[in-house]
Amino acid sequence: MVQPKGFEDPTNPQFVCKLHNSIYELKQAPRAWFNCLSTALLSLGFVSSQVDPSLFTYHSDSTHAFLLVYVDDILVTSNVQLFIDELISSLQLDFAMKDLGQLSYFLSIEATRDSSGLHLRQTRYIIDLLDRVNLIGIRPYRAPCVSGTKLSKFDGDPLLDPSEYRHTVGALKYVTLNCPDIAYSMNQLCQHMQAPTTAHWTAAKHVLRYLKNTLDFGLFYRPGSFSINAYCDSDWIGDPDDRRSTCGYGVFVGLNLISWSAKKQPVVSKSSTKAEYRCLALVTTEVYWLRMLLCELQISLDSPPVIWCDNISALAIASNPIFYARSKHIKVDYHFVREKFAHRDIILENISTSIQPTYIFTKGHTADRFCFLRDKMAICDLPASLRGNVSDNDADHSNIQENSKPSQ
Fold first, then answer.
1. Residue 262: pLDDT above 70?
2. Exposed/middle/buried for 203, CB within 10 Å: 0-12, 13-18, 19+?
3. Which domains does the chain possess?
4. How far is CA 107 from the centre of its chain?
5. What is the reported pTM?
């Protein structure tokens, strides 16, 4: 710590402020705040989730409630509206809180409900981002990247000031929370944060052009079954610099996309089968985590999750022990997937490459092909009838914001 400018003590320049209490910006302040809040929730009958530390669940007879915490913002939902009202009243005795009513805007994500389901989008955030980088008038485009292109660290000339690229890509990364269709492009851009070039900046602007064209696009969640279907795919030795593969997966609950990823593998795979099998192990881990989460929510599955892969050899390794001698270097992944498959915790199925939806996470496509894959991911435009509406009273959700430190 140093003396702030304008308040220096010339007679004692070595003096600094003595800290008597924790202040909000310190690293330990969020931990202290979370401990205080979790203690209060546990005393009210909530149980802390073992798979997601920010989730608290409540189950008593026919009453079920779920509370999600992000720093000092809280989402709570229940099948009994009276329980939500009593919970808020109880928390307000110890915390200075403000009830924002029905969920409409949370962490830059806009939520709009109608009779068919829940629409999530980030229209305001994207418009603010375009305005911040002075590209509000940029020409729209139908796809976030050019088909067949792979970014290399040797493309283009180094940027004189890379800070704008880093700020823009960092802001775009947050958009992937609700726009999984740009996950592959963001995976490419984030790999060049250290030394961005003009080619990388052009690719970033290409993503902005796509977002300009799809301002009201987002995820659409509708009620239905809780069957789990996961799709995985890998682009073998796709990186032009280190020849590592890019793997992508998408996990659906019913018709709703719940989890997705586009990630470069940490090691080089010597064959497409090994690259696909590593991706298969990754999505199996995600599916197993989701099963544990649904179990805590007291939601039972009628059938084991199904994982769809377009590589027959990878499926054969998981189901046929005779392939083990050829796959010693992926021994851990082999045992993990084989165990889940043998215990019928997962079901492995083959899918045609032409209809594999996770192709959108592993490579660039033409605009028509990209739109075809995007439609399979339950990413759609907001209906014109809902534009301008920010809330609806058809569901029992509340958005709570904590405005200050806990009352003493």
1. yes
2. buried
3. 28-101+395-402 (no CATH), 103-392 (3.30.420.10)
4. 13
5. 0.83
